[in-house]
């Protein structure tokens, strides 16, 4: 979903960048448990209901040149993109949310989060 990095906007990106800068191989499958634990801690400090962290589910996919963190469900995709909506049940059911002048949609098949700008 994201292509431009901005410090302080997305705590997940900030955390992963720090790991990479310190030489960690975040694509290593053994690291996923540690990354998941760190993401859970971040979410517990951000979410209105810390128990919603049970919906956190993601993969780390890599090839020679790229590493991609992919949300396996709509709410994980939103969180990993730096969006922390409060209506979790609606998102899990409908795979979309409107925030500001954007409608974000999660595609279950492709596991991609996209948005459309709408006039208000």
Structural description of this entry:
By secondary structure, the chain is of the alpha+beta class. It has one domain (11-117). It is 34% helix and 22% strand. It has a three-stranded antiparallel sheet. Strands 1-2 form a two-stranded antiparallel ribbon. A hairpin with a 4-residue loop joins strand 4 (102-107) and strand 5. It is globular and about 45 Å long. The mean pLDDT is 91.
The secondary-structure element order is: HHEEHHEEE
What gyration radius follows from the Cα positions, in whole Å? 14 Å
SS-based class: alpha+beta
The number of helices is 4
Helical residues, percent: 25-40%
Q: Which stretches are low in confidence, meaning pLDDT under 50 for 5 or more residues running?
A: none
In percent terms, what proportion of residues is strand? 15-25%
Net shape:
globular
The profile of the biggest β sheet is: 3 strands, antiparallel
Strand arrangement within the widest β-sheet reads 3-4-5
Number of strands: 5
Number of spatially distinct domains:
1
State the end-to-end CA separation: 23 Å
Instruction: Name the average pLDDT.
Output: 91
């Amino acid at each position: 979903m994201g292509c431009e990095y901005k410090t302080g906007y997305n705590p997940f990106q900030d955390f992963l960048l720090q790991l990479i800068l310190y030489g960690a191989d975040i694509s290593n499958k053994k690291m996923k448990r540690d990354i998941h634990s760190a993401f859970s801690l971040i979410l517990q400090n951000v979410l209105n209901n810390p128990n919603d962290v049970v919906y956190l589910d993601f993969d780390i996919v890599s090839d020679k040149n790229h590493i991609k963190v992919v949300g396996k469900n709509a709410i994980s995709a939103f969180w990993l993109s730096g969006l922390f909506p409060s209506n979790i049940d609606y998102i899990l059911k409908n795979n979309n949310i409107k925030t500001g002048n954007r409608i974000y949609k999660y595609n279950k098949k492709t596991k991609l989060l996209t948005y459309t700008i709408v006039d208000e």
